[in-house]
Design a protein that fits this description.
Cofactor: Mg(2+)
Distance between the termini: 26 Å
CATH class of the largest domain: Alpha Beta
GO molecular function, one term: polyphosphate kinase activity
Function: Catalyzes the reversible transfer of the terminal phosphate of ATP to form a long-chain polyphosphate (polyP).
Number of helices: 18
Strand content: 15-25%
CATH topology of the largest domain: polyphosphate kinase like
EC number: 2.7.4.1
Shape: globular
Number of strands: 27
Protein name: Polyphosphate kinase
C-alpha cells in the first residue's frame, strides 16, 4: 500500500472551524488517554457538515448539484439539532451530564456548537443569495420574488392562492381561548401582526399561520405568464402576498416566517413487552418534542422574536435569524421542477461483472468464485437477482435476511414475499428503530407478515445493523448455504447514491457463521462460537483491537488502513495511537466524525486522516491490515464508534480471495491518491482540502472508480 505526503496541500477557507485546542507536547511519553488528544464528537460532526456545504462552491460539480449540496447541509443540520443538540440538552435538563473524552461538558459543547453553527449558517445563506441564485439567473432559472411579479404572474398567484392554499390553510388567532398552537417539528409557519377587531370584537394583535404541509414549498410558474426560462416561486411568498385574505377586515401589519426544530430522538425502555406498539406511540410524540432551535426571518421585529423564544423555552443561543427561506432543504425540489440535464451530473449505467453476465444462475456463478461488488459503480441488481432466483428455485428451502433501511415497496421485499408465498421458510429480522425509518419499517413488517414471512424485531437494546442474507439450497442431496454480506443497506435507491461493498459467497465456514448469527437473533441462548466473522457486541471490538496490536508488534513494517464513516471509540483510538508510536503507517479514510488527533509528534506522527466528499456518499467500511506482507481485508457494517462496536449487532467479514484482496487494495489506493475531493484533518482540528501540486493532474477518486468500473 502506498502512503502519500501532504506536501501538495493547499489551504482553503478555514475561518469557520471550532476553536483549536492546544497540542500535546512532543515526546515519546505522550499519554494516549489525555483529554487533549481527542476531538469533540459533536464539533467534528459540524466540521463534516461544513465540508458538505463547501461543495456548493466547487465549480467542478454541476450547478444544480451544487444547490443540492447546500440542501443536504440543511438536512444534516436538521438532524444534528434533532438528535445531537437535543441529547446534550436532555443531559442538562435531567442532571445526567457526562464528560466527553475531550474533557468538555455538555453546556460548554452547546456554547461552542452555537458559535460555530451560526457562522456556518450565515455562510450558507451568503452562498445561496450571492453565489448560487445569481449563477442560476445566468442559466435562465429564476426564483421570482414578490416585488418582481408581473401583473400576469401576480394574477396567477392570486388564483393559485384562492384555489390551492386558502381552502387548506388554518390561521390561528392568539387569545385566551386560542392559546399558542403545538406546531409540528420543522414545519413552515408565519407569525402575523394584526390591527383591528374581528367579527366577534376580539383584538388579539397576533396570529399564527401554519403553512399546509400537503402543499409544495416551491411552485413553477406557467410558461404563458413568463418571458422564457424556468420561473419558480416560493409558497411562503404566496402566503406573504395574500395574508390579508386570511384575516378579512383586519390590517396585517407584518408577516414573518419561522420554523421550530424539536427533539426527534426516540426513548424506548429496554424491558418492553411489545416493541412495535411502543414505537408507534413514540413516533407520535416525535413531532412535538422539546424545541431545540428557532429559525426566523431576519426582518422579524425583535419583540416577536422574543415572544417566540419564550413560547418555545429557548434562548438567543438557540435563535437563527436567516436572510431567505427558513427551510432551504425544500430547494431540493428544483431538480424535479427544472429540466436542465446540462446542469446536473451526467448519467451512467452501473456495470455488472463479467462473472455473472452469462445466463447461468447466481448460484452457479457464486459456487465458482466469491463475488464482490462496489456500488453504485457496479449494479445492485445481482443482489436482487439472487433473492428472486432463490424465491423461484425449487431447490431453495429457506431464506433469512436482516432489514435496516429497505423501503416497503422495494424489489428485495417483493422477492421475500414471493418466496414465502411459494412455501419457502422466509425469516426477516427488521430493525424497527432505524432512525427516521421507523414508520416505514413498521409498514414493511406488516406487509411481510401478510405474505407469510416470519418477522422478528431483533434484540431489544441492541439495534440489528448487520447486513446479511442466508439462502439454504439443496444440491446433490446436501444442503449448501449461500450468503450475502454488505457494508450498506438493502435499499436500491441508496445503492445508486452510496458507495458500499456487497460480498457473495458459499464458503462453508462463513455460511455456518451467518447461520449461527441468525440463530442468536431469532432464538435465545449463549453466544455461539463463530469461525471467520467478527460480530458485535461479542467479538468485533476485541478482534479489531487485537489486529491493530498485531500490526503494532511489527513496528515500521506494520500497515493499517481503515475506511469508516466515523471514528469515536476511545479504546480503538488509543490502540491506533500506540501503533503509531510503534512506527506503524496508518491511513484513515473517514467521511464524517473523527475524534482522533492525527500527526501529533510522539503520539500520532504516522497517522493520516482524510475525508472524501463528492458526488456519492462514501459509506463502505473496510479494515485493511498489512500482516507483514500477507494482507488481511475485512468488509463491515460497523464504524469505529462505541454504538457499533459495543451495543449493536454488527458483522465484519473476511475477503479471502487473493484477486478480491488486490481489488479492494487498489480501491483504497485510489482514495489515498485523491488530490481534489479529499480533505485532510490537521492536528489542530481544522481540515484542508487537497489540491493538485503544480504540474500534477487532478485525481478525483470517485471519478477514477466510475471510469474504471463503468467506462464513464
Amino acid at each position: 500500500m502506498s502512503t502519500e505526503s501532504a506536501n501538495n496541500l493547499k489551504a482553503v477557507d478555514n475561518q469557520n472551524v471550532p476553536a483549536p485546542v492546544e497540542l500535546p507536547t512532543p515526546g515519546n511519553d505522550v499519554d494516549v488517554a489525555a483529554q487533549e488528544n481527542y476531538f469533540n464528537r459533536e464539533l467534528s460532526q459540524l466540521q463534516f457538515n461544513y465540508r458538505v456545504l463547501k461543495q456548493a462552491l466547487d465549480t467542478t460539480h454541476p450547478l444544480i448539484n451544487r444547490l443540492m449540496f447546500c440542501c443536504i447541509f440543511s438536512s444534516n443540520m436538521d438532524e444534528f439539532f434533532e438528535i445531537r443538540v437535543a441529547g446534550l440538552r436532555q443531559q442538562i435538563k435531567y442532571g445526567r451530564e457526562t464528560l466527553g473524552s475531550d474533557g468538555m461538558m455538555p453546556e460548554q459543547v452547546l456554547g461552542e456548537i452555537s458559535r460555530v453553527a451560526h457562522e456556518y449558517i450565515r455562510e450558507q445563506y451568503d452562498i445561496i443569495n450571492n453565489v448560487l441564485i445569481p449563477e442560476m439567473e445566468q442559466e435562465n432559472i429564476h426564483f421570482v420574488r414578490r416585488r418582481e411579479w408581473t401583473e400576469a404572474q401576480a394574477e396567477w398567484v392570486r388564483r393559485y392562492f384562492d384555489e390551492e392554499i386558502l381552502p387548506v390553510v388554518s390561521p390561528i388567532g392568539l387569545d385566551p381561548s386560542h392559546p399558542f398552537p403545538r406546531l409540528v417539528n420543522k414545519s413552515l409557519n408565519f407569525i402575523v401582526e394584526l390591527d383591528g377587531k374581528d367579527a366577534f370584537g376580539r383584538e388579539t394583535g397576533m396570529a399564527i399561520v401554519p403553512a399546509p404541509r400537503s402543499l409544495p414549498r416551491l411552485v413553477r410558474l406557467p410558461d404563458d405568464v413568463c418571458n422564457g426560462g424556468d420561473n419558480l416561486v416560493f409558497l411562503s411568498s404566496m402566503i406573504h402576498a395574500h395574508t390579508d385574505e386570511l384575516f378579512p377586515g383586519m390590517e396585517v401589519k407584518g408577516c414573518y416566517q419561522f420554523r421550530l426544530t424539536r427533539n426527534a430522538d426516540l426513548e424506548l425502555e429496554d424491558d418492553l413487552e411489545d416493541l412495535a406498539s411502543a414505537l408507534r406511540g413514540e413516533l407520535l410524540s416525535r413531532r412535538f418534542g422539546d424545541g431545540v432551535r428557532l429559525e426566523v426571518a431576519d426582518n422579524c421585529p425583535e419583540e416577536l422574536v422574543h415572544f417566540l423564544l419564550r413560547e418555545f423555552g429557548l434562548t438567543e443561543r438557540d435563535l437563527y435569524q436567516v436572510h431567505g427561506p427558513v427551510n432551504l432543504t425544500r430547494l431540493m425540489a428544483v431538480g424535479g421542477l427544472v429540466d436542465r440535464q446540462d446542469l446536473t451530473y451526467s448519467g451512467f449505467s452501473p456495470s455488472i461483472p463479467r462473472q455473472i453476465r452469462s445466463k447461468e444462475s447466481m448460484f452457479d456463478a457464486i459456487r465458482k468464485r466469491p463475488l464482490l461488488l462496489l456500488h453504485p459503480y457496479e449494479n445492485f441488481s445481482p443482489v436482487v437477482d439472487l433473492l428472486r432466483q432463490a424465491a423461484k428455485d425449487p431447490q431453495v428451502l429457506a431464506i433469512r435476511q436482516t432489514l435496516y433501511r429497505t423501503g416497503a415497496d422495494s424489489e428485495v421485499v417483493e422477492a421475500l414475499m414471493d418466496a414465502a408465498r411459494r412455501g419457502k421458510e422466509v425469516t426477516a429480522i427488521i430493525e424497527l428503530r432505524a432512525r427516521f425509518s421507523e414508520a416505514e419499517n413498521l409498514e414493511l413488517a406488516s406487509r411481510l407478515q401478510e405474505a407469510g414471512v416470519i418477522v422478528v424485531y431483533g434484540v431489544v437494546g441492541y439495534k440489528t445493523h448487520a447486513k446479511m442474507i442466508l439462502i439454504v439450497r439443496r444440491e446433490e442431496g446436501k444442503l449448501r448455504r449461500y450468503v450475502h454480506l454488505g457494508t450498506g443497506n438493502y435499499h436500491a435507491g441508496n445503492a445508486r447514491l452510496y458507495t458500499d461493498y456487497s460480498y457473495m459467497t458459499c464458503d462453508e465456514s462463513i455460511g455456518d457463521d451467518v447461520n449461527k448469527l441468525f440463530q442468536q437473533l431469532t432464538g435465545m441462548g449463549k453466544a455461539l462460537k463463530i469461525k471467520k466473522l467478527f460480530h458485535s457486541p461479542f467479538t468485533l471490538h476485541t478482534r479489531l483491537l487485537g489486529l491493530v496490536e498485531r500490526e503494532a508488534e511489527l513496528g515500521p513494517k506494520g500497515r493499517i488502513i481503515f475506511k469508516f464513516n466515523a471514528l469515536t471509540e476511545r479504546e480503538l483510538i488509543k490502540a491506533l495511537y500506540r501503533a503509531s508510536q510503534a512506527g506503524v503507517q496508518i491511513d484513515l479514510i473517514i467521511r464524517g466524525i473523527c475524534c482522533l488527533r492525527p500527526e501529533v509528534p510522539g503520539l500520532s506522527d504516522n497517522i493520516r486522516v482524510r475525508s472524501i466528499i463528492g458526488r456519492f456518499l462514501e459509506h463502505a467500511r473496510v479494515y485493511y491490515f498489512g500482516n507483514n506482507g500477507r494482507p488481511e481485508v475485512y468488509g463491515s457494517s460497523a464504524d469505529g464508534m462505541e454504538r457499533n462496536l459495543l451495543s449493536r449487532v454488527e458483522t465484519a467479514f473476511p475477503i479471502e480471495d487473493p484477486a478480491l484482496i488486490a481489488r479492494v487494495s487498489e480501491d483504497l489506493d485510489t482514495y489515498l491518491a485523491d488530490n481534489c475531493q479529499s480533505w485532510v484533518l490537521q492536528p489542530d482540528g481544522s481540515y484542508i482540502q487537497n489540491q493538485p501540486a503544480e504540474g500534477e493532474s487532478r485525481l478525483a477518486s470517485q471519478l477514477v472508480l466510475l471510469e474504471r468500473l463503468t467506462g464513464k
